[in-house]
Amino acid sequence: MLNAAKQVLRNWREQASLPAEAKAEAARDARGLPAQDPGIDAAVKAALQWLKRAQDQSASKDGGVARDFSLKTGWAVSYPETTGYIVSTMIDCGQRFQDPDSLDRARRMLDWLVSIQFPEGGFMGGKINATPRVPVTFNTGQILIGLASGVGAFGEPYLAPMNQAAAFLRDSLDADGCWRKHATPFAERGDKTYETHVSWGLFEAARHVADQGYAEAAMRQVEWAFTQQQANGWLANCCLNKPATPLTHTLGYALRGFMEAHRFTQDETVLRRAIKTADGLMTALRPDGFIPGRLNPDWSAAVQWSCLTGEVQIAHSWLMLFELTGDRKYRDAARLANRYVRRAIAIDGPVDQRGGVKGSFPVDGDYGQWEYLNWAAKFMIDSNLLEQDIDGRA
To answer: Is the overall model pTM greater than 0.85, yes or no?
Structure first.
């Protein structure tokens, strides 16, 4: 009873000390999601502008993208990991919308990333000012996705950095297919199933350089990840810090890695295993598009808030499955999840929040609490553009 009373007092003090903007956002979220969906065009346009602002407003002013905008502390410094895969979104938007500014920004991001690459090919974990400053498997894999996109769009300048990062990952893989040598110091130690999202980076590198064993290493890791899959599609060891109740964010990472492994190999066994996890996640989807931000091994809710990043990541993989199978349940589920997240986006209002995607809904949920996250905006754009493409082909 005493500990519970102390926790209530701490919560009250924290709420009382919040800036006015945070209190106002919490009050809005307490009323529930707005009924109005701004639609794909408006949401994507606003989120793209928010990402550009995140690059311009980064507290480290280095060409990278600020990790977040916090309602408590303002703009953060740049985050190498997520800047890496934001590059791919900027290139896609630049080409799709004939927007030279997005392409120029992608090059600035790439040039900054190349400037901080370790000699052995890896990239640091955490924000740019984080310590210890050591190469980390997961962060290197996410930046590799962006480097491969840079090779595809801009050519030779990014080929050597891409190969260095890919070789670092290939050569540090353990014999059983799990990465353990360069674990992040910013999460709990232990095997990480969601590093299939690192394997995606190797598949992308292999599209440009086919004879260096990148794809073979990636598939060894994916096969290891399948050893963590349960009969109902559940994935063990699939969270930053709570593997018993993982985030939909890290489950979304793992599922996308499976999907990319199938896209590269066209192996039907890989597709069947991806479908098991995708179908399990679908049982957690509610009719309004809400997916609990953490899930139990039977896919039931472990929390009552949504991780908005995880929602759009999972929606993207469901859309990929619809394209492969023609099964409308995947398209319909993705539409619900995407719409849920769009409704959480402010298209007008304060410029630092406009177009941003919160870590959680409500904003005081335990993932990215009080923050608008750069990777949430990136994955929202990607998933909604794929939904739009599919609808346009219908």
So the answer is: yes
